[in-house]
Design goal:
Helices cover 45% and strands 20% of the residues. The protein is of the alpha/beta class. The longest helix is centred in the C-terminal third of the chain and has 18 residues.
Length: 254
């Protein structure tokens, strides 16, 4: 889907029409949508960046903001807000900071707005807004399978041993590690211990991948207190669902 700016407001004012023209001149696709959940849902696509524009003396539409927040969480996106200083203060009480790309006080600086949008699309196209996952497993076939499953939603890196993972993390950042529990030479628990003992990697969330589903094996995995675990026979849809749920909870906790 094409990247587009969705300008959301109670009415298409002269100022909004000027903004839409400025976007057009900068070759930014845009559309105006009335501030209602149904209208926003109908116009939304995969490349949408919502811009909530508030004129003076308007109340924030709580149902619209709740819908936007839920949608942004689901799709790992951010929004832009334009309003008076008091409106911005109110917005920040409702919407988590990591879902806000930028806020602009009225009167809007159109050039600054255009610059932020262009920069966002460039970074988004490069995958900079995708969460990063490192998958660690000694089974090359399984590694490639998981990478194929996740690559459209996340930035995925793969390594085939615990020591490679430690080396990779020495020069790379990651949002989550999927770690094979049963690996030769350096096992998953040993890798986790090394990660937790190093200040640079101690806070990285780790989920174990395990091929054993019996109660004793699962209890051994859980006892290590990872952020979670998944059986290796998990299918694509369930894996994506579990990862999405994990990142949602992480955002809400933030």
């Amino acid at each position: 889907m094409e990247n587009q700016v969705m300008v959301i407001a109670n009415k298409e004012s002269f100022i909004i029409r000027v903004l839409m023209k400025k976007m057009q001149e900068s070759q930014i696709a845009g559309c105006f949508v009335n501030a209602s959940v149904s209208a926003i849902a109908a116009a939304w696509n995969d490349g949408t960046v919502p811009v909530y524009y508030m004129d003076s003396h308007e109340a924030i539409a709580r149902d619209v903001l709740q819908y936007l927040q839920d949608r942004l969480l689901q799709e790992h996106k951010k929004m832009v807000f334009i309003g008076e200083k008091a409106d911005i203060v109110e917005l920040k009480k409702i919407v988590p900071a990591d879902l806000i790309l930028e806020v602009f006080e009225r009167p809007l600086n159109n050039e600054a707005f255009i610059s932020v949008i262009i920069g966002h699309f460039l970074e988004s196209d490069a995958g900079d807004y995708k969460k990063s996952i490192l998958v660690v497993d000694d089974d090359a076939t399984y590694l490639n399978l998981v990478r194929d499953w996740l690559k459209d939603t996340y930035r995925v890196s793969i390594v085939s041993s615990g020591l490679q993972a430690i080396k990779w993390l020495g020069s790379n950042k990651v949002d989550l590690i999927l770690l094979d529990h049963e690996m030769p030479v350096t096992s998953g628990p040993q890798v986790l211990e090394m990660l937790r003992s190093d200040a640079e990697t101690a806070a990285i969330p780790v989920m174990f991948l395990t091929g054993k589903s019996d109660k004793e094996s699962v209890m051994q995995v859980v006892a290590l207190k990872p952020e979670g675990y998944m059986l290796k026979n998990i299918d694509k849809d369930e894996l994506l669902q579990k990862l999405d749920s994990f990142f949602r909870k992480q955002r809400m906790a933030f």
